[in-house]
């Protein structure tokens, strides 16, 4: 009878461990955010990439959840806005200097 008691305890311990794992998986699934990255997260990633200050954690998240199209479009928009801003300031400086 002494030999049966440890087996019973072991099996109940295993089943409680398995139920804890199953409960943990359910909790993780309900706490996960929707797939993809949001608008501001994309903007932050594009700006970080342009200036070379992207964190490894953010980069991994972008590759896991992000779409290449949204980052390409965001990058193109940023470059166009950046060039237009530089042109504006150069033209303003030339006008104020009397050269334009």
Summary?
The chain is mainly alpha-helical and 100 residues long. It contains 4 helices and no strands. The protein folds into 2 domains: 1-32; 37-100, no CATH class.
SSE blueprint and pairings:
Elements: H1 4-31, H2 39-51, H3 56-65, H4 68-97
Number of strands: 0
Helicity, as a percent range:
over 70%
Count of spatially separate domains = 2
Q: Per DSSP, what share of the residues sits in E-state strands of 2 or more residues?
A: under 5%
What Rg is obtained from the alpha carbons, in whole angstroms?
Answer: 28 Å
Give the overall pLDDT as a whole number. Answer: 77
**SSE topology string:** HHHH
Report low-confidence residues grouped into runs of 5 or more: none
The global form is elongated
Intertermini distance: 102 Å
Instruction: Report the total helices.
Output: 4
Structural class: mainly alpha
Largest sheet: none
